[in-house]
C-alpha cells in the first residue's frame, strides 16, 4: 500500500474529523501518502481529491462535522458510477480506501471491494450507535452528552410550569440514544423502536407518576419508535386521556449531530484511525475497525452491516426503577 484514500459518507457525526486526522497522520507516520476524497462516494466518482499531509489536519480534532464533507451518492449504487470511481482512484494512484460512516457507507465499500478487489477498511461513524461489532460508533458519546444537556434545560422549564414534555431524539432504527440519554437525564419514560411500550402502559405510567407527586415529567422518544403515533399525535392522545397534563413537544433534530466531539469520541477516533491504516498495511481488507471491551478489533464489513445491535435490556429495567 502506497497511497490511501479517505472519505466520509452518509450522516455526519462528531469525531469524523478526529478520525480523518488520525488516518492522515498514521499514513504520514508510516511514510505513505494520503488523499482526502470530498463528498464521500460522489467525490470519488468525480475525482474530487486533495492530497493531505500531517499539517493539513491541524486543529480539527475538536471540530464537529467533517472537513471532507459528506454525501449520499445515488450514482455510486450503479456499476457505471462505481467504474468511474475506480478509474479515478487508479489514475490518482490510490491503492486502498478508508471509509468513515454507517451501514450505507460500509455497503458501498463492500460492493466496491468485491467488484474491483480493492482494499477497503471501514471506521464506524454515526450518532445512532447501530453498527454491529463495536460498542461505540464515532459521535454517539457526543450526541448523548448533547441530548442530556438539552433535556436538563427542558427539565427547568417543565418543572417551572408543571408540564409534561415529549422529547424526540434521533434514532431511525435504534433506541440507544433515547435509552441512555433518557436515563442520564432522568426521563420518566423512554420509548424506543426495540420495545413497544404500548399506549395503555404509557398512560398508566404517567398517571402513576402524577399520583406519586411528581410535578414535571419528561418522556424521551426515539424517532423510530413503534408505539404507532408520532410525537405530536402522542401529545394530543395524552392530553385527551389525561386532561390533568399540560403537554409540550420538543423535537431535538439535527443539533444532535453537531458540536465539538467529546474526549471519548476524540480518543476513539484516534485509535480507530491508527488501526484502520495499520490493518491495510498488514494486507487486511473488507473489515471495520471497532471497539469491544475497550480493545480495538476488526469485524468483517458484511457482519458489521448485517449483524443485529442489541439494546441492553437491563437498562430498560434500570430506567423503570429510576422512574419510581
Ligand atoms: O445519523 C443518523 C441519523 O441521525 C438518523 O437517526 C436520522 O434518521 C438521520 O440521520 C437523518 O439524517 P438526514 O437528515 O441526513 O437524512
UniProtKB/TrEMBL annotation:
Principal localization reads cytoplasm
Q: Which residues form the active site?
A: 128 (proton acceptor)
Q: Which cofactor does it need?
A: Mg(2+)
The yes or no answer to whether the keyword Glycoprotein is present is no
Where is the Phosphofructokinase domain positioned along the sequence?
3-279
Q: What class of enzyme is it?
A: transferase
Q: Which UniProt keywords apply?
A: Allosteric enzyme, ATP-binding, Cytoplasm, Glycolysis, Kinase, Magnesium, Metal-binding, Nucleotide-binding, Transferase
* Binding locations of ADP: 21-25, 155, 186-188, 214-216
Instruction: Give the pathway annotation.
Output: Carbohydrate degradation; glycolysis; D-glyceraldehyde 3-phosphate and glycerone phosphate from D-glucose: step 3/4
Q: Could you tell me where this protein is found in the cell?
A: Cytoplasm
EC number, as in UniProt: 2.7.1.11
> Which BP terms from GO are recorded?
canonical glycolysis; fructose 1,6-bisphosphate metabolic process; fructose 6-phosphate metabolic process
Pfam families linked:
PFK (PF00365)
Q: Which residues bind substrate?
A: 126-128, 163, 170-172, 223, 248, 254-257
Binding, Mg(2+): 103
| Any GO CC annotation of this UniProt entry | 6-phosphofructokinase complex
The record's GO molecular-function terms, alphabetically, read:
6-phosphofructokinase activity; AMP binding; ATP binding; fructose-6-phosphate binding; identical protein binding; metal ion binding; monosaccharide binding
Q: How is its activity regulated?
A: Allosterically activated by ADP and other diphosphonucleosides, and allosterically inhibited by phosphoenolpyruvate.
> Tell me, what does this protein do in biology?
Catalyzes the phosphorylation of D-fructose 6-phosphate to fructose 1,6-bisphosphate by ATP, the first committing step of glycolysis.
Similarity-based family: Belongs to the phosphofructokinase type A (PFKA) family. ATP-dependent PFK group I subfamily. Prokaryotic clade 'B1' sub-subfamily.
Q: What is this protein called?
A: ATP-dependent 6-phosphofructokinase
Q: Which organism is this protein's natural source?
A: Flavobacterium gillisiae
User: Which gene does this sequence derive from?
Assistant: pfkA
Amino acid at each position: 500500500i502506497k497511497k490511501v484514500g479517505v472519505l466520509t459518507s452518509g450522516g455526519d457525526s462528531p469525531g469524523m474529523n478526529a478520525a480523518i486526522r488520525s488516518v492522515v497522520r498514521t499514513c504520514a507516520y508510516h511514510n505513505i501518502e494520503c488523499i482526502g476524497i470530498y463528498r464521500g462516494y460522489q467525490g470519488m466518482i468525480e475525482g474530487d481529491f486533495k492530497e493531505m499531509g500531517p499539517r493539513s489536519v491541524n486543529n480539527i480534532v475538536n471540530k464537529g462535522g467533517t472537513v471532507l464533507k459528506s454525501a449520499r451518492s445515488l450514482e455510486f449504487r450503479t456499476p457505471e458510477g462505481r467504474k468511474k470511481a475506480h478509474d479515478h482512484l487508479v489514475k490518482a494512484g490510490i491503492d486502498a480506501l478508508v471509509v468513515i460512516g454507517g451501514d450505507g457507507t460500509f455497503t458501498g465499500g463492500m460492493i466496491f471491494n468485491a467488484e474491483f478487489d480493492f482494499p477497503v477498511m471501514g471506521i464506524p461513524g454515526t450518532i445512532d450507535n447501530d453498527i454491529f461489532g463495536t460498542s461505540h460508533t464515532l459521535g454517539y458519546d457526543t450526541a448523548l452528552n448533547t441530548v442530556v444537556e438539552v433535556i436538563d434545560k427542558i427539565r427547568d422549564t417543565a418543572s417551572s410550569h408543571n408540564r409534561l414534555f415529549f422529547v424526540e431524539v434521533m434514532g431511525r432504527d435504534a433506541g440507544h440514544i433515547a435509552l441512555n440519554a433518557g436515563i442520564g437525564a432522568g426521563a420518566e419514560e423512554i420509548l424506543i423502536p426495540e420495545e413497544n411500550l404500548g399506549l395503555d402502559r404509557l398512560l398508566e405510567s404517567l398517571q402513576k407518576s402524577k399520583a406519586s407527586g411528581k410535578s414535571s415529567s419528561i418522556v424521551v422518544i426515539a424517532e423510530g419508535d413503534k408505539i404507532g403515533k408520532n410525537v405530536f399525535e402522542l401529545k394530543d392522545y395524552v392530553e385527551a386521556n389525561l386532561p390533568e397534563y399540560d403537554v409540550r413537544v420538543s423535537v431535538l433534530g439535527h443539533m444532535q449531530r453537531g458540536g465539538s466531539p467529546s474526549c471519548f469520541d476524540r480518543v476513539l477516533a484516534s485509535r480507530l484511525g491508527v488501526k484502520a491504516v495499520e490493518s491495510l498495511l498488514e494486507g487486511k481488507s473488507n473489515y471495520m475497525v471497532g471497539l469491544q471491551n475497550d480493545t480495538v478489533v476488526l469485524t468483517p464489513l458484511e457482519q458489521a452491516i448485517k449483524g443485529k445491535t442489541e439494546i441492553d435490556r437491563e437498562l430498560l429495567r434500570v430506567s423503570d426503577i429510576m422512574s419510581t
